[in-house]
C-alpha cells in the first residue's frame, strides 16, 4: 500500500474543527450545541453585499484577473487610507481568503528549512501553512498570567539564527484577543530591521479593538516598508467567511512578482466573492458601528461570566472576538470531548477549541480553551451556564491548591 507523504503525516488537524464529528453526533441525539469553537460570526452580512449578488447582471461568470479585479483593488485603497495605510492598487493582490494569502506569502518568501518566529499561542493553521511551504515555525512563549504580552527582545534574539527568515504576528490576535502595543510593534520593527527579516502581519481583526490605544499596523512602521507583507480578509469584517476573499499587500515588488506566479497557477480568486466584497465597502457607517457595539457587549458578557465560574480565568481581550481561558481540568481536549460525548444540561452542551492546538510547545495550553464570542448574548449566557454545570460534573476536574 503506498505511503502517505511526510508533509501529509505532519500536517496537524485543526483544533477548531477536529471535534466537529462529535458535535454532529450530539445534535443527532437531539442535544443543542453552543458553538464557541469557531470564529463564524452570526451577525448579518451587509445588505449591499447580498443585493450585489442577487443583482448580478452577467451572461458569463468568467475568470477574474489572477491578482483580483482592478475595480475592487482600487476601491480597497480608500478603505486602507482610513486606517493610515497608504497603498496603491498594484500593491494589493486578492486571494482566496486570508489563508491563501498566508500560504502564498510563505511559498514566495521562504525556502525549505527556513524558520519563522511566531508568538504562541497562535492561529493553528499557520503551522499547516508552514509545513506546506517546508518551513519551520519557532515559537516564542507568551503566558495567560501576563495577559499574553510579548516577552523582552532578548527572548526573540535567542531564537534568531542563520535560518531565521521572518517574524509572523496576528494583531489583534487570534486566539488570545491580545492587541500589540506601540512599544511591542517598535520592538518587532527593530528586530526586522536589524536582521533583515520579513514581517508577516495578519490584521484581519482591525475593526475590533476595545481599548483607547491606537491601532498600530505593520504598515505604519517606518524603515521596513520592503519587509512587510500584510494579510487581510473580509471574512470577519463583514461576516463573509463563505465568499473566500482575502488580500496580500506589500510594497515589495519582488514579493508581489513571486506571489503572482502562485496566483496564476491557481487561476483566479472567486468572481462572485469579489463582487460581494467590493459592494461591502459601501456598507453604511451604522452597519460597522452596530457590529462593533455588539461585540463590545458580547465580550463583557463572556469575560464577566467566565471569571465568575469557580476555577476559571480569562484575561480581558483587547481585540478580535476570542479569548483563551484557563479551566480547572487536567486535559482540556478530553474535557471538550466529554462535553460533546457524555454531557448535557437542560438538553444542551458546549463546543470549544482545545487551546493546546494553538501551541507547538509540548504540554502548553493543556488546561486552556479558545472561546469565540460570536453568539448573541442570550446564547452566550446559556452557554456559560452549561459550561459551569459541565465543570461541576466533570470527573477530571482539578481543584485549586
Oligomer: single chain
Main sheet strand line-up:
2-8-7-6-5-3-4
Shape field? globular
Average of per-residue pLDDT values:
96
Poorly predicted ranges = none
Q: Please give the alpha-carbon distance between the first and last residues.
A: 52 Å
Largest sheet: 7 strands, mixed
SS strand fraction: 5-15%
Order of helices and strands: HHEHHEHEHEHEHEEEHHHEHEEEH
Number of strands: 12
Query: What would you report as the Rg, rounded to the nearest angstrom?
Result: 21 Å
Approximate helicity band: 25-40%
Please work out how many helical segments DSSP would assign: 13
SSE-based structural type? alpha/beta
Features:
single chain, about 400 residues, alpha/beta, seven-stranded mixed sheet, three-stranded antiparallel sheet, 13 helices, globular
Short summary of the structure?
The protein has 401 residues and is of the alpha/beta class.
Explain this structure.
This protein has 401 residues and is of the alpha/beta class. The chain has 13 helices and 12 strands. The longest helix has 24 residues, at 285-308. It is globular and about 55 Å long. The mean pLDDT is 96.
How are the SSEs placed, and which strands pair?
Layout: H1 6-10, H2 20-28, E1 32-35, H3 47-54, H4 70-81, E2 92-95, H5 97-109, E3 115-120, H6 125-133, E4 136-141, H7 153-159, E5 164-170, H8 182-195, E6 198-202, E7 228-233, E8 246-249, H9 253-265, H10 271-280, H11 285-308, E9 322-326, H12 332-341, E10 348-351, E11 353-354, E12 368-372, H13 377-393
Parallel strand pairs: 1-10, 3-4, 3-5, 5-6, 6-7
Antiparallel strand pairs: 2-8, 7-8, 9-12, 11-12
Helix pairs in contact: 3-10, 4-10, 5-6, 5-9, 11-13
Amino acid at each position: 500500500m503506498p505511503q502517505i507523504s511526510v508533509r501529509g503525516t505532519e500536517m496537524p488537524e485543526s483544533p477548531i474543527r477536529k471535534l466537529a464529528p462529535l458535535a454532529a453526533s450530539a445534535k443527532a441525539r437531539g442535544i443543542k450545541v453552543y458553538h464557541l469553537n469557531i470564529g463564524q460570526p452570526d451577525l448579518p452580512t451587509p445588505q449591499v453585499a447580498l443585493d450585489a449578488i442577487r443583482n448580478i447582471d452577467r451572461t458569463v461568470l468568467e475568470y477574474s484577473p489572477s491578482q483580483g479585479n482592478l475595480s475592487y483593488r482600487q476601491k480597497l485603497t480608500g478603505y486602507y487610507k482610513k486606517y493610515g495605510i497608504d497603498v496603491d492598487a498594484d500593491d494589493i493582490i486578492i486571494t482566496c481568503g486570508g489563508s491563501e494569502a498566508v500560504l502564498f506569502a510563505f511559498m514566495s518568501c521562504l525556502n525549505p528549512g527556513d524558520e519563522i518566529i511566531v508568538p504562541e499561542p497562535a492561529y493553528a493553521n499557520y503551522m499547516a501553512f508552514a509545513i506546506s511551504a517546508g518551513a519551520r515555525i519557532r515559537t516564542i512563549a507568551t503566558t495567560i498570567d501576563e495577559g499574553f504580552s510579548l516577552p523582552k527582545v532578548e527572548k526573540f534574539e535567542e531564537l534568531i539564527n542563520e535560518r531565521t527568515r521572518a517574524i509572523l504576528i496576528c494583531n489583534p490576535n487570534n486566539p488570545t484577543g491580545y492587541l500589540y502595543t506601540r512599544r511591542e510593534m517598535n520592538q518587532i520593527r527593530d528586530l526586522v530591521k536589524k536582521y533583515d527579516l520579513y514581517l508577516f502581519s495578519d490584521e484581519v481583526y482591525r475593526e475590533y479593538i476595545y481599548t483607547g490605544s491606537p491601532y498600530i499596523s505593520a504598515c505604519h512602521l517606518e524603515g521596513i516598508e520592503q519587509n512587510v507583507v500584510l494579510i487581510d480578509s473580509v471574512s470577519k469584517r463583514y461576516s463573509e467567511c463563505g465568499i473566500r476573499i482575502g488580500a496580500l499587500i506589500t510594497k515589495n515588488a519582488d514579493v508581489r512578482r513571486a506571489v503572482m506566479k502562485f496566483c496564476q497557477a491557481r487561476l483566479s480568486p472567486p468572481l462572485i466573492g469579489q463582487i460581494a466584497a467590493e459592494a461591502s465597502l459601501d456598507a453604511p457607517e451604522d452597519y460597522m458601528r452596530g457590529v462593533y457595539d455588539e461585540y463590545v457587549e458580547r465580550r463583557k458578557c463572556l469575560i464577566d461570566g467566565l471569571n465568575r465560574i469557580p476555577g476559571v480565568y480569562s484575561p480581558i481581550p483587547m481585540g478580535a472576538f476570542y479569548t483563551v481561558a484557563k479551566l480547572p481540568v487536567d486535559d482540556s481536549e478530553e474535557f471538550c470531548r466529554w462535553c460533546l460525548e457524555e454531557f448535557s444540561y437542560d438538553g444542551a452542551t458546549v463546543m470549544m477549541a482545545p487551546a493546546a492546538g494553538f501551541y507547538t510547545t509540548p504540554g502548553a495550553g493543556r488546561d486552556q480553551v479558545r472561546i469565540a464570542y460570536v453568539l448573541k448574548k442570550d446564547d452566550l449566557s446559556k452557554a456559560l451556564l452549561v459550561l459551569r454545570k459541565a465543570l461541576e460534573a466533570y470527573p477530571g476536574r482539578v481543584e485549586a491548591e
